[in-house]
């Protein structure tokens, strides 16, 4: 185990985490947990779920740091966190379905309003699982990450560049390419019938 400096790269920290260095994990946590929490909060209004997802993300990092390809960890961390959030939502939805299942006519209980997904949650779930989610899966991962950061999460070009560890100009270029590829993928999923509107 060794001390870690603020200037250590994410790749160096992840190599140390892969070797079982808890101090390296703590340094990564200090560096990335804040923006992960803020970004997850934009997708989920339940602070307890957000805290659990951040915690689960770093548990996953501890277990799978050796699998990281090197470089900045931001995009990789966000991918893990986004998947954990989707998993958490599925658990909540199952619990809500159980709570709202038909019960004894003598004892009818309703799920609290907080258990129901918000309009924003429903839109984001549509992005993950609907045609847009399918189309997003068809574009390259680096373009998909830029699109999710700038469009879904509403980050500025500068914030997205910092998160993904790439220059701002690259974010802009990838965002333009991503939109074009996403449009093409959506057209393939939903071709316009002959004689229909153009």
Automatic annotation (TrEMBL):
Gene3D superfamilies: 1.10.1740.10, Winged helix-like DNA-binding domain superfamily/Winged helix DNA-binding domain
Alphabetic keyword roster: Sigma factor, Transcription, Transcription regulation
Domain RNA polymerase sigma-70 region positions: 28-94
Ranges of residues in domain RNA polymerase sigma factor 70 region 4 type: 132-182
Listed InterPro entries: RNA_pol_sigma-70-like (IPR039425), RNA_pol_sigma-70_dom (IPR014284), RNA_pol_sigma70_r2 (IPR007627), RNA_pol_sigma70_r4_t2 (IPR013249), RNA_pol_sigma_r2 (IPR013325), RNA_pol_sigma_r3/r4-like (IPR013324), WH-like_DNA-bd_sf (IPR036388)
Family from the record: Belongs to the sigma-70 factor family. ECF subfamily.
NCBIfam families: sigma70-ECF (TIGR02937)
PANTHER family registered for this protein in UniProt: RNA POLYMERASE ECF-TYPE SIGMA FACTO, RNA POLYMERASE SIGMA-70 FACTOR ECF SUBFAMILY
Protein name: RNA polymerase sigma factor
């Amino acid at each position: 185990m060794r001390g870690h400096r603020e200037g250590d790269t994410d790749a160096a920290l992840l190599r140390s985490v892969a070797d079982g260095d808890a101090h390296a994990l703590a340094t990564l946590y200090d560096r990335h947990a804040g923006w992960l929490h803020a970004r997850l909060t934009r997708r989920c209004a339940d602070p307890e779920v957000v805290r659990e997802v951040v915690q689960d993300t770093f548990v996953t990092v501890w277990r799978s740091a050796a699998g990281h390809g090197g470089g900045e960890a931001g995009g990789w961390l966000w991918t893990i966190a986004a998947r954990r959030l989707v998993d958490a939502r599925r658990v909540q939805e199952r619990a809500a379905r159980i709570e709202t299942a038909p019960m004894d006519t003598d004892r009818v209980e309703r799920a609290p309003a907080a258990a129901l997904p918000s309009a924003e949650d429903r839109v984001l779930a549509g992005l993950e699982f609907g045609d847009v989610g399918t189309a997003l899966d068809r574009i390259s991962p680096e373009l998909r990450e830029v699109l999710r950061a700038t469009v879904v999460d509403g980050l500025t070009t500068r914030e997205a560049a910092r998160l993904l560890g790439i220059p701002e100009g690259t974010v802009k270029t990838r965002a333009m390419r991503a939109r074009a590829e996403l449009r093409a993928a959506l057209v393939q999923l939903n071709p316009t019938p002959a004689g229909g509107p153009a």
